[in-house]
Write a structure and sequence with these properties.
globular, 313 residues, mainly alpha, 0% strand
Length: 313
């Protein structure tokens, strides 16, 4: 099958004549674009809930919140790229996509500097959001920036413990949706927290796929992820729960948010979620998990878009 025209153009922009990523392609790979939607979906859902509850939306805070969330994740991904290399986690045996620092495509110092630039830009956007939302937004923003650094930084990185999934559920779910809702309403209500749990579970599923793929190499370098501690079989059950619970929580959201049958629309994606669960259980160890990771992130995006449309309908 011949690549689509859009893919050919993107490849020409990102790949050199030798087949290796060019400078732009290296940076593109370093920010991990396939999973950036994990930070955007909860902001989208939080603002949609606020719109449905109060009948209007302040667009500038919504846009700035989206940019800040995106920058925090980019900073986290870049910091992860260089930190994992320096800690010896990104070895030649790694099964995931190539990392820019480990492959020698980008200097570690440049990647770390870019990470801090992304964090600094997010902080500057956060000043406006703090002016808008007050001290709760200050707390959420500073905690998110600190967590982005601590995910693979500091003496005990979160990514090297069994808490990675919980980290994503909290910061890319509850706090992201709840904070976005608070920016618009200056209040927090149970529908926002429940919706945050739903989209955060999908984000946590992305981490579960990532850590299951890297189970063997992580164990060799001393990373104690949930998959390493409890094994692949337990990780498969965790993944199934992360993928199915959001659908099970839809009726609760309909009751709390005062929605109607339109909130059942995301159930259209349930067969796709079941297919991904089956793929997870059957997949052989190795790079096949890379495709599943991207597919899981896409499912969260589709779920978030359908949920947003159902909320504002």
């Amino acid at each position: 099958m011949r690549p689509l025209p859009g893919r050919r153009v993107r490849r020409a922009l990102l790949v050199s004549a030798s087949g290796q990523p060019n400078r732009l392609g290296c940076w593109w790979l370093a920010i991990r674009p396939k999973t950036l939607t994990v930070s955007l979906v909860p902001v989208l859902v939080g603002h949609a809930l606020a719109w449905s509850q109060q009948g209007h939306l302040s667009w500038w805070p919504a846009l700035v919140a989206l940019l800040a969330a995106l920058l925090i994740q980019i900073g986290t991904n870049l910091h992860n790229d260089v930190s994992d290399f320096e800690r010896g986690s990104d070895t030649p045996e790694r099964l995931g996509p190539p990392r820019a620092t480990a492959m020698g495509w980008l200097p570690g110092a440049a990647v770390r500097r870019a990470a801090w630039i992304a964090f600094a830009l997010a902080f500057n956007f956060g000043i406006y959001l703090a002016w808008r939302g007050g001290w709760p937004i200050v707390v959420i923003g500073l905690a998110s920036l600190l967590a982005g650094w601590a995910y693979t930084g500091g003496p005990r990185p979160i990514a090297y413990t069994p808490l990675g999934e919980l980290f994503v559920l909290l910061f890319f779910g509850l706090l992201a949706v709840g904070g976005s809702y608070y920016l618009q309403t200056l209040s927090i209500r149970s529908p926002a927290l429940l919706a945050g749990t739903m989209v955060g579970l999908f984000g946590a599923a992305v981490i579960t796929v990532n850590n299951t793929r890297d189970l063997a190499t992580d164990a060799r370098v001393g990373r104690r992820t949930l998959a390493v501690v409890f094994g692949r079989r337990a990780a498969a059950w965790v993944y199934a729960a992360e993928m199915l619970l959001p659908f099970a929580l839809l009726p609760g959201l309909a009751v709390l948010a005062g929605g109607g049958l339109q909130l059942a629309v995301p159930l259209l994606l349930l067969p796709l979620a079941l297919r991904h669960i089956g793929r997870f259980r059957r997949a052989a160890d190795g790079p096949v998990f890379n495709a599943l990771l991207a597919a899981t992130a896409r499912l969260q995006l589709f779920f978030g878009v359908l949920l947003t449309l159902a909320i504002v309908a």
